Amino acid sequence: MPSQALAPVAIEGRSMAILYGSETGNAEEIAVELGKMAQRLHFQTTVDEMDGFKLADVLRYSLVVFVTSTTGQGDMPKNTRKFWKNLRREKLNNTNCLRSLSFTIFGLGDSAYSKFNWAARKLRARLLQLGASEFFRAGEGDERHDNGIDSIYLPWSKEFKEYIMINYPLPESVAPIPDDTQLPSKYPIRLLADMDINTPNNIAASDGPLTDDDQRWLATRTKSAARSHVDTPTPPEEQDDIWERTQKQSVDVLDHDNVLKDHPEKYLLKQQSAKKPRLPPSDMLPIPDSYEGFLIRNERVTPTDHWQDVRHLVLDVDLPHKLWDQASRAVGNLTVTIFPKNYPDDVDELIRLMDWQDVADRPLRIPYRPRNLVTKECPTLRDLLLHNLDITAIPKRNFIRELSFYASDEREKERLRELTLPGNEQEFYDYTCRPRRTILELLGDFRSVKIPWGAVLDLFPLIRGREFSVCNGGTSFETASEPNRIRLELLVALVEYKTIIRKPRQGLCSRYLKHLPTGTRLRVLLKAGSAISLVPNKESAKRPVIAIATGTGIAPIRAIIQERDSYPSPGDTLLFFGCRNRMADFHFEKEWEVKPNLRVFPAFSRDNIEPDPASTQSIAASSKTTIITNGTLPTLQLDAHKNYVQHLIRKHADLVGHFMRQRPIICVCGSAGNMPKAVRAALIDAMIISGVVSNCDEGDKMLRNHEMVTYWEETW
């Protein structure tokens, strides 16, 4: 068991706030790690999302660290936008109001996007503009590096710590808290009736009178005991291999280069068993600002033998009719957030591994809650595991480091600590990210780890809602059965694959949606993105549209097309749609056939259709300043022998040029990667070929000119 936790010493004038902006949790994870580093250096530390702070709050801290990702088209994450809006107020200009603020910033980005780390860059620029001083250099992580963000973050954080220790030294009588000493719990939980039941893992027993919650527990404890689960050991044949926990070498040393050594058939997902898993409970959490929805349809739209399971979901959502207009104006940017749950079998396994059977179904008191934790009234530990804690996430460095405090086997303790040591980034990646190993699997590997049930909120990440683009608009909103219900449709590609260790994987939300029966009630959030409104009025609906989409990126495009069709005399639309096969994933093909003002050019990359060789020649990719002379120019051949949307854009350059002369709206949706850059280059090529512009610089300027073109990009 862990030794006594050691709290930081309170030192006058030594405080640090670490404020994060995060969409997927990566920036928050780094903020938490930096916060623990600061605590070990005896800073009075606060870690919070930016929207949890006012501008005046940041001035109360000696040092402030900002950690933010970038979302959308260079946008700030959603949990920073209130803070960012306050920071951008015009009346703050030329006031030098942040002159007492000392800050640094670390950004998380993906260099595949044109506005790489844009959020961190513009936040830094605004802070400096308002008089703040930068006490340590900014860092910019890039997902495209070999080890992802860690390639930049780990050296940056090491340098940051060294800088703090030199420039903000501790008094001689105070030493940093060692890494092998545990910090105090931030979010302890306890049983409501712990004074009546002698529980070894109990935290902070109460000596006061019975509360209403305690009395409720006493009145129902017999029923609760009946719901408790018996400890049933897993048969040997069902146990996972656990040899990795005692090995000093990487667990994937045989597949070090991530090259499949066997026949590819070994890595294909086999047909699922006819036996369906026990479904999560249907209870709905009281999520703030959410709406109640009903699942009307959950239909697979790709063949059962296709590699990807794509679902067409239809939800009827209780939404006051007065808010429908806002939903219509947000078409293209409108998203539905669904909150997945863990499956009971996984929760049972974790309870068994951790020996939590005696407390799993007893009501808990949670005096301090992590931000965004929403629970049932008087939740049990089982409730938290089913509804709130992501037990199948890939374990982060912080999680593994904390686990080492709860390992009773010294070899396992040492192995866990080794995985998180500087210099072992590749080994950490090989064990966690590369095989997509889950927290539950890790705990199965390290059997001596026994996490106290009272510490679960400190260790496990919270389940985050998953956002999906709404794929309908216009009059289709009105097909719900009740006047105050809006019908929303989603096109969702389920995440299912096999990893290098040959284990099938499913995303948490994908698994949840795969078996979700019609009629299920859900609490969902409706959000409008920060991008421009694409169909705000009938004048906009008359403008021509050039739409380029790949895969499920067709979802917001379909919504835009339907919304435009709800206006009289909508403009023409060109749709370049890329997918693998005509017979497998040509989504909404039948719908496109009956729309008179829509022309669709599909690109099937796996149907053995050889592209026109001329369409693989890129002018824009070869030179930004090349000008056509005598009808010839140097070109660069790209993606030969594959049929992609960029080839069709060049092939139909004259038609694209015709649209470009009419102040079009251009929509690009789909996977990030190389697609957005290749599409932009192809559009410039088409403009040059059709004579709209004479060189690449002119084409690039035209795409950036909001008076001539509305260019909207939604990639992920």
TrEMBL record:
PROSITE patterns named among the record's database cross-references: FAD_FR (PS51384), FLAVODOXIN_LIKE (PS50902)
Organism: Chaetomium thermophilum (strain DSM 1495 / CBS 144.50 / IMI 039719)
SUPFAM superfamilies: Ferredoxin reductase-like, C-terminal NADP-linked domain, Flavoproteins, Riboflavin synthase domain-like
Segments of this protein annotated with the region Disordered: 222-243
InterPro entries from the UniProt entry: CysJ-like_FAD-binding (IPR003097), FAD-bd_FR_type (IPR017927), Flavdoxin-like (IPR001094), Flavodoxin/NO_synth (IPR008254), Flavoprot_Pyr_Nucl_cyt_Rdtase (IPR001709), Flavoprotein-like_sf (IPR029039), FNR_nucleotide-bd (IPR039261), NADPH_Cyt_P450_Rdtase_alpha (IPR023173)
Statement: the UniProt record of this protein carries the keyword Cell wall biogenesis/degradation: no
Occurrences of domain Flavodoxin-like (ranges): 16-161
GO cellular component: cytosol
Superkingdom in the source lineage: Eukaryota
Alphabetical list of Gene3D superfamilies matching this protein: 3.40.50.360, NADPH-cytochrome p450 Reductase, Chain A, domain 3 (1.20.990.10), Nucleotide-binding domain of ferredoxin-NADP reductase (FNR) module (3.40.50.80), Translation factors (2.40.30.10)
UniProt-recorded name of the protein: Uncharacterized protein
Required cofactor names: FMN; FAD
UniProt cross-references to Pfam families, sorted A to Z: FAD_binding_1 (PF00667), Flavodoxin_1 (PF00258), NAD_binding_1 (PF00175)
Transmembrane annotation, as ranges: none
Domain FAD-binding FR-type stretches: 288-537
Annotated GO MF terms: flavin adenine dinucleotide binding; FMN binding; oxidoreductase activity
Presence of the UniProt keyword Lipoprotein in the record: no
Keywords: FAD, Flavoprotein, FMN, NADP, Oxidoreductase
